[in-house]
Design goal:
- The structure holds 2 protein chains of 2 kinds.
- By secondary structure, chain A is an all-alpha fold.
- Chain A contains 13 helices and 2 strands.
- Helices cover 71% and strands 2% of the residues of chain A.
- Chain A has a two-stranded antiparallel sheet.
- Chain B is mostly helical.
- Chain B contains 14 helices and no strands.
- In chain B, helix 3 packs across helix 13 (264-293), helix 4 (90-121) runs antiparallel to helix 12 and helix 10 packs antiparallel against helix 13.
- Classes of the chains: A mainly alpha, B mainly alpha.
Chain lengths: 333, 300
């Protein structure tokens, strides 16, 4: 107790913030930190409370459901006056064991990783290329910019429908053009391999403009003098790109790559609306697979909740990696 | 901040000196110019073609989408539009989407603003946990919460009700708005807060009277993102909304091309009706959008 009081007094003095005149009794630790921090806590309270109720509680319930055998049939519901009680039972970790040992999990995870990596790599590569082209003085620059941003401006579900029509095997304009060129049409959405290519193409089309604009902003923030000095010193274009442009872009590119990774990993509408996960589930990523389990056929709530938790675990790993990267850049939290 | 001395140093430049032309401008060969423009034209075509084709299809007769040849125009007509507006629930769906998205946006921004400020300015016990919570919850894919939320809503009788959808959207909109506003507040110089505090404002007064009015662009960006996220959401809307009169646009449009019918004529017309106003608004504000999202990274 004495040490605590001494600590408190010392801290109050060194911080210079504690009101020395507040009272004859030195405040306790809790009271002192309440005095210093109550503003911050009060301002955070709305979000904390809302998150606890809307995310925390459902999350706990999801964890519980994932440990049961709940399906549509035994969920319990109220039909008119009749209350049918829930009859699902606790089954421990069986759902998780089933998922982790299933071939489905390996193949869904594999495809999700391929999907995410290919999409983000294309987004970044094409976005950076276009941004560098747009970052030079030329005629019609503003026009190109507007045209190139268009895919981002159209709501994503609308774009998904557009592409489903364009890629339609029989009536789609893509196949019509192939046939006009004397080539055989391709079953874009009905063949497992081409369906994967199709959803990647659609998602790349959707995602490049954001990357392009973000990186263009980053490019414009790099002081021109750096490039000029390097040019005077005889650096080749590649050396300037490698040693000035890329390092200068790092703050922007780390943010957009993280965002892009999360968005792509969670990209529900493109898969769901373009192929519905088909043909035969071949384009189903983790997120859409868990959704189909819960809302199509016999609704397997417990299984879907368990898939959700597995996905959450993967995302927490991703977030930790990101936080470590931020830490290295000097952001401390 | 470092910007202040830099700004005061600018007038030191000789008054008559004009800024130098951008590097590389006069050294581009004609061949390089042609290549540059050709690349950009090809990219622009790829970006624009799907949308252009959508518009062209929408003004063809109702069944012209079944043509197997490439035709730009066949008997232009507005039949599809008339049909969409008069014989389908399109306007109802549009209203539903707007209501849900607007409610989500307003509630999320109001709840999130003060937290965004607190985590931008204060260091307090619990700070790291809150940042961690904001980062993780906005990454939550639909698959994690949709089942428990669906069951809770079913228990509360909120399935097929617009408020149920708003509640579901708030789970991601609130942390997202808080995170984005933190990014914007970070770019507002702390010296403004210090001046306010010296003049006797409380921390909340500083936030409310000084920082919030200065941060209107940041708030607008966060609100806009929350809005378009809610308005283009597919998964919750598809699972929760079961009645034709409660569909949002994303669910309703899927009905045109469901398993039993394919009305691509109607679909393209509705898509144009949604996409054109959305794209116009978007193109007008897009400059602010990118800076808003990467504000934390560039500090500009």
């Amino acid at each position: 107790m004495t040490t605590e009081l001494a600590d408190g007094a010392a801290a109050a003095v060194t911080r210079g913030r504690g009101r020395a005149t507040a009272g004859s009794r030195p405040p306790g630790r809790l009271r002192r930190s309440l005095q210093t921090h109550w503003y911050a806590w009060a301002m955070c309270a709305p979000v904390v409370i809302v998150t606890a109720v809307l995310v925390g509680y459902p999350l706990l319930r999801g964890v519980y459901l994932s440990l049961t055998d709940a399906t549509e049939a035994n969920m319990g519901r109220t039909i008119g006056m009749n209350v049918i009680p829930a009859t699902y039972e606790f089954v421990g970790l069986r759902n998780y064991a089933d998922i982790l040992t299933s071939a489905e999990f390996a193949s869904r995870l594999g495809w999700t990783v391929v999907w995410t990596v290919v999409c983000v790599a294309c987004h970044f590569g094409l976005g950076l290329g276009l941004a560098m082209l747009l970052n030079r003085p030329m005629r019609l620059r503003a026009l190109y910019r507007v045209l190139l941003v268009l895919p981002w401006a159209v709501p994503s579900f609308v774009s998904a429908f557009i592409w489903r029509y364009l890629l339609n095997g029989e009536y789609g304009v893509v196949n019509a053009m192939l046939r006009a060129a004397g080539l055989p049409g391709i079953a874009w959405l009905d063949d497992p391999f081409w369906a994967k290519i199709s959803v990647i193409v659609v998602n790349v089309w959707l995602g490049v403009p954001f990357m392009m604009l973000a990186l263009l902003g980053g490019l414009q923030a790099i002081p021109r003098e750096l490039h000029e000095a390097a040019e005077v010193d005889g650096a080749s274009p590649w050396q300037r790109f490698r040693h000035i442009t890329l390092p200068g872009l790092r703050p922007v590119s780390s943010t957009v790559i993280l965002l892009g990774t999360i968005w792509t990993f969670n990209q529900f509408p493109v898969i769901f609306l373009v192929t519905r996960g088909g043909p035969g589930g071949s384009t189903e990523i983790l997120v859409t697979y868990a959704y189909q389990l819960a809302f199509e056929g016999i609704r397997d709530y417990a299984g879907s909740a368990a898939w959700g938790m597995v996905i959450l675990a993967l995302l927490v790993v991703l977030a930790s990696v990101y936080r470590r990267a931020l830490h290295r850049q000097g952001e401390v939290w | 901040m470092a910007a202040v001395p830099a700004a005061s140093a600018t007038p030191a430049r000789p008054a008559g000196a004009r800024p130098r032309p951008p590097y590389g401008r006069f050294r581009r060969s004609p061949l390089a110019s042609v290549a540059l423009h050709l690349t950009l034209i090809a990219a622009s075509l790829a970006a624009v073609f799907p949308v252009a084709w959508l518009i062209l299809t929408s003004i063809k007769p109702r069944n012209a989408w079944q043509s197997t040849t490439v035709e730009l125009f066949t008997d232009p007509t507005l039949d599809n539009y008339v049909q969409v507006l008069t014989e389908t629930s399109f306007l109802r769906w549009l209203a539903n989407s707007l209501i849900v998205a607007a409610l989500t946006t307003v509630i999320a921004v109001v709840i999130a603003a003060s937290t965004g400020y607190a985590v931008s300015r204060f260091r307090f016990p619990g700070y790291r946990s809150i940042m961690w919570m904001l980062l993780v919850t906005q990454m939550f894919p639909v698959a994690i919460l949709i089942v428990p939320i669906y069951n809770l809503m079913a228990g509360l009788g909120l399935i097929n009700q617009l408020p149920g959808l708003v509640i579901a959207y708030l789970t991601s909109a609130v942390p997202f708005c808080a995170w984005m506003m933190k990014g914007y507040f970070d770019s507002v110089p702390v010296s403004i807060d210090e001046a306010g505090r010296l003049d006797g404002l409380t921390p909340f007064g500083t936030f409310w009277r000084l920082i919030l009015p200065l941060s209107k662009p940041g708030l607008a960006v966060a609100a806009f993102y929350a809005f378009i996220t809610a308005w283009a959401e597919v998964a919750y809307a598809t699972a929760f909304m079961t009645g034709d009169d409660k569909y949002t646009l994303a669910v309703g449009l899927a009905q045109f091309v469901g398993q039993h019918k394919a009305e691509w004529g109607l679909l393209t017309a509705s898509a144009v009706l949604i996409a054109v106003p959305a794209a116009v608004v978007f193109l007008l504000v897009q400059r602010h959008l990118v800076t808003g999202l990467t504000a934390g990274a560039t500090k500009s």
